[in-house]
Amino acid sequence: MVLLVIHREKGPVITDDVFTPGPGRTVFSLRPPKSDVDRFREEGVWRDGNPVQDLVRWRDETPDAVALIALQTETGETTSLTYRDYARCVERYAGALAELGVGPGQVVALQLPNVWQVPPLLLACFRLGAVVAPVMPTIRSRELERVLHRVGATVCVTADVWDGYDHAGALAEMAPRLPKLRHRVVLGSRIGAGEVDFTRHFEQPRETRPLDDAWPDPDQVCVVLFTSGTSGRPKAALHTFNTEYATAAAHVTPDDRGPAERFFTPHSLTHTGGIFLCLMRPLLTGGSGVVADRWVPEAIGPFLEATAVTQVLIAPVFLAELMPFARPGSLRLVTTLGTATPAPLVEAVARDLGLPLRTCWGMTESGGTLMRADDPPDWALHSAGRVSRGSELDLRSDLGEITAERPGRLYIRGATVCLATVGRDTGELVVPADHDHGWYDTGDLAIPDGRGGIRLMGRDADRIGGVLMIPASDVESALLAHPAVRDVALVGYPDPAGGELPAAVVVAAGSPPTLADLREHLAALGMTEWYWPTRLELVDQLPRNAMGKIRKDVLARDLTRRSTVD
User: Fold this and answer.
1) How far apart are CA 522 and CA 490, in angstroms?
2) How far apart are the two ends of the chain, measured CA to CA in Å?
3) For residues 484-494, average pLDDT
4) Can you tell me the distance from the alpha carbon of 291 to that of 304, in angstroms, rounded to the nearest whole number?
5) Which residues, 6+ apart, have CB-to-CB distance to 469 below 8 Å?
6) Least confident residue range of 98-107, 126-135, 529-538, 556-565
7) Structural domains of the chain in order of their starting residue, each with its CATH number
8) Which segments constitute the AMP-dependent synthetase/ligase domain (predicted)?
9) Residues paired with 505 in a beta bridge
């Protein structure tokens, strides 16, 4: 079945260098073709502006309106910036980055927790025409080094120590293997040899870069976001200001109330959800982003009430933890991300907050769907919403009619899809519009919801996770290096909160390993902790098809059945 399919011309083209790993070659010269630029502007889903201009607008029109509120959960202290403060901070940070040699097309990596400095840093990079590579603070040294190598980051801004992990130390250890990395900037009190002290350099730079005298091109690559992708192999998604704008603008409604609108998400400011809600949405409405540095539900519940938060975007597992501490207050919209939404959660939001719980679906590579005000109150149980303006969905199946028992594979194309993906480890460049008439394979399975939208029914067996995907093939390769593992498949099994957790299905080589053995092995490699399996299943052999490929669908069904029985 096809939903709203429109044929259009071929998508983005490379106008300068064709990407090949090696010196002097880049993907950051990618641009959309003029036909797409003209079409999407005419439809109103792309624009000539950019977030820096949005900031200047509110600085001039509502300089005393609150732009950003940040909570330090350990001390209870808050930091608040008006739009005047915000703009001055961005100018100061842009000057500090320029002093470090940052300019157009260069890459700045940010690996920071949800502190107030992150949004101004993002905008400062945009002001200079630099490309930002945000990295979540839960990513560990093994994956971080690969990211920094792939994007050729010249500056990396990180924390000294956060949640017991020595970020600055890990970055210092890998720095000699990253010849393009010129500066290691550290936010915190522990500043080591060769590191730039963030507080001294960024809060008191020798120069500033005014916001009024340079406007970044809205169709240039501005941010590179890493994801495991549909194949379970890590990749970077290259977005422009306009692909990001199309996603954020789709959620703006006439009900948004300007300076009174306050947006909160617990998700990382250095990944797509945080950028979408706490940077883009406030700048489009003149409202404010509200952030907390750590996920502490008992502290965040009162904080949301005290700061009069109006909109929350949150994964079901986080919402379930927040509900005992949440109060209606000023809340008018609570939206979960498009993993399965448990019925008790829908009921709790309606009962305790007096609101219908909404849901939306999207991915790092593209915006997607959202529920609307005219949807039934319990529609989050049945739908991930309708496609956003400027985008199209396609459901495909080789098995005939698409049903709940035989869902279709979900494809998307349009104004929200990234210009390209780049394999983190392989360097493989894929321009979505150059393949299959621009359709991007999401790896998700879905059916029509009966109201012009979709209901998500699961994922391709290689995709594991909830809000964030786990790179299955990468973890499998690492596990195969364990002497007690002869063969292995990483497969998702149901998380009670509506997502998925990773299970290692192992054929042992001699004495079988324990789950603790496997996790210790991955820890020793420096692998990011939330990639590690949380369950171990020992089997005599892995099921394979005629081509020798592991039948992960069979393993996943078996794990789901066992989880249900358990």
Assistant:
1) 13
2) 36
3) 90
4) 9
5) 227, 228, 229, 232, 463
6) 556-565
7) 464-565 (3.30.300.30)
8) 58-417
9) 489, 537
